[in-house]
Amino acid sequence: MSLDAVLARIDADLDAATDRLMELLRIPSISTDPAFKADCSKAADWLVNELTELGFDASARPTPGHPMVVAHGDGDGPHVLFYGHYDVQPVDPLDLWHRDPFDPAIEETPKGKVIRGRGAADDKGQLMTFVEACRAWKAETGTLPARVTIFFEGEEESGSPSLIPFLEENADELRADIALICDTGLFDPETPAIVTQLRGLLGEEIRVTGPSLDLHSGMYGGIAMNPIRALTRVLAGLHDGNGVIQVPGFYDDVAELSPGLKAQWDALGFDEARFLGDVGLSEKAGEIGRSGLEMVWSRPTAEINGIWGGYTGAGFKTVLPSEAHAKVSFRLVSGQDPLKLRESFRAWVRDRLPADCEVSFADHGASPAGHMDTGHPAFEVARAALSAEWPKPAAFIGCGGSIPVAGYFKSHLGMDALLAGFGNDDDAVHSPNEKYNLSSFHRGIRAWARVLGGLAT
Q1: What's the half-sphere exposure (Cβ side, CA atoms, 13 Å) at 164?
Q2: Whole-number Å distance between alpha carbons of 68 and 132
Q3: pLDDT value at residue 111
Q4: What is the DSSP code (8-state) at residue 239?
Q5: Which of 248, 189, 179 is nearest to 409 (CA)?
Q6: Given 3-state DSSP classes, what are the helix, strand and coil percentages for the chain, each rounded to the nearest 5?
Q7: Given CA atoms 90, 94, 97, 98 in this order, what sign does their dihedral have?
Q8: Do the beta carbons of residue 151 and residue 415 sit within 8 Å?
Q9: Spans of the chain below 70 pLDDT
Q10: Residue-level pLDDT at 1
Q11: In this structure, what are the phi and psi dihedrals at residue 418, rounded to the nearest 5 degrees?
Q12: 3-state secondary structure of 420
């Protein structure tokens, strides 16, 4: 059977595959910092060269920001689009890294071997699992079992400003039967996962102004409205005592979890106490009566991400500040309209401010939630493929985070996305000392090889 030969090739080639990943990890492709613009282009060119050597028709496409890598490989099966991103997060604070973040290495840990370096898990190690799966199929059979388009973005970690225009301009070229996205993780080290729902994201920055200048608290304290006082009173009312968000209409379009999916999630045995205990907490803070997985996967949230105003330097300064600021984000679920909720939130804030305060807002993105159609045959193919590689069967799960590209593939290309990734909770994604388990890299390659083979049958 050709699949057996492909899997054997992957096992034999693991050291070489790891070396290739190390080479890509050495390129500091930090998309948000203009100082690394040339390195982002270098990473794109590196990928183009690798894919060209594998027989893909590959090129780096210019954008107003960083290049997009697009590659096409012929095959007899269905057409799949694989998406990943080659850009990485900044490495600050550098002094918390145990080694140079762009000098990757294999390290022995109590949990096994890991690949240490910026981008190892997010997302270079993940995207290379698919590239190496294609390499093994080509090496053993001379072809791919499916028609494959590869699409690597270079701005995912900096807001993807070029993504939607690129999708619109190249829709016919990129459209496929289904999109495959490898930018997620395992449910736990023994249980692989396929994400079937993603929360959307709405970001708002609030600026409240009161007096025309900072005031002496001895002269004006008590008689003058303090913008920090006004703003914190508003924010304190964002949730009631049961954790329910108080913005009018916030839950109007929120559906309850289906009994079947709830039962599947309950069967995963999520340890809420350990999940919170790992970060020094002991009690759930969300809606009373909801399970932990409901809270992070299928319920919307409102969180205050930053608040500032007045004097915050060393020592003390007794002023009533002229301005107060806050940043608030909402994680949204399927059915919620982020633009509708933005207007509702802004009206709610305005209604709660005293007469001597004015408010202005700045938006920081608005993307809807995603809900995948698991009726597509690729989902069962993927579940079987991942289940064959990990000790426990693969589960259909939700994701508390937001991966807007999955929604954009639906809205701009008209195709569903299947999200399967192999990261672990302790990979320190976006943090110092990021790592990717070598076993995740190895099993991930084998899993994608099985998916490609399964889609062809």
Answers
A1: 9
A2: 20
A3: 92
A4: B
A5: 179
A6: 35, 25, 40
A7: positive
A8: no
A9: 1
A10: 60
A11: -115, 120
A12: strand
Cβ contacts of residue 110 below 8 Å, gap of 6+?
A: none
Unique residue bearing structure tokens 């970001």: 203
Find the helix packing angle between 2-12 and 124-141, rounded to 10°.
130
The residue whose two tokens read 């076993």 is 439
437's enclosing H/E stretch is strand 435-437
Indicate the DSSP class of residue 237. Answer: T
Answer for the pair 393, 322: CB distance below 8 angstroms, yes or no: no
pLDDT (tens digit, 9 = 90+) per residue, 134-185?
999 999 999 999 999 999 999 999 989 999 999 999 999 999 999 999 999 9
pTM of the model: 0.85
Alpha-carbon dihedral 426, 9, 456, 56, rounded to 10 degrees: 90
Q: What is the pLDDT of residue 278?
A: 87
| Distance, C-alpha 400 to centroid of its chain | 9
> Which residues lie closer than 8 Å to 66 by C-beta, 6 or more apart?
31, 37, 40, 41, 44, 87, 154, 155, 162
SS3 62: coil
Distant-in-sequence, close-in-space partners of 8: CB < 8 Å, separation ≥ 6: none
Whole-angstrom distance, CA of residue 348 vs CA of residue 334: 22
3-class DSSP assignment, residue 272: helix
- pLDDT, one tens digit per residue, over 224-277 is 999 999 999 999 999 999 999 999 999 999 999 889 888 989 999 999 999 999
